Amino acid sequence: MTARKHLLSLLLSIIAFPCVAQDGVVTIEGTRIRGDQEVPTVLYLVPWQAPAVQSLARPDERLMLQRPIAPLERQEFQRLVSYHQYFRASVEDGKTSGRPDATPE
Question: What CA–CA distances, in Å, run from 89 to 36, 43, 76, 92?
Fold first, then answer.
């Protein structure tokens, strides 16, 4: 019987204890952020994946050796420029007229 009384008194004291503790009011301060206006704001972007390294392909040496550097005559250069202008005009006319056969291959 005494064990029952001790258990009952212990149980009542445990139940009554939170009621006594709730009487006080708890105040929590807000967060304060302090900064310096003289320090610049910096944003660091960090990639999540390592960049893929692509090697540069060397140009084909045969292409460089096919046409050696040689001086051009003025008339020859003007002829090449006129060919280029004629070709460019024919391509632009083909695009505007909508003819599929006018575009070069």
Answer: 63, 50, 20, 5
Phi-psi domain of 98 (left: phi exceeds 0; alpha: psi -120 through 50; beta: other): left
Distance in angstroms (rounded) separating the CA atoms of residues 84 and 88: 6
Tokens of 12: 């009542």
Cβ-based burial of 102 (10 A; exposed 0-12, middle 13-18, buried ≥19) = middle
Read off the DSSP letter of residue 35. -
Distance CA 48, CA 51 (A): 9
Q: Is the pTM of this model over 0.70?
A: no
Question: How far from 35 is each of 30, 32, 40, CA to CA, in Å?
Answer: 16, 10, 10
Q: Can you give the residue ranges of every domain in the chain?
A: 73-105
- Element holding 93 (H helix, E strand): helix 74-97
pLDDT one-digit tens code per residue, 9-67 = 877 777 766 555 556 777 888 877 777 667 667 777 777 777 777 777 777 777 666 66
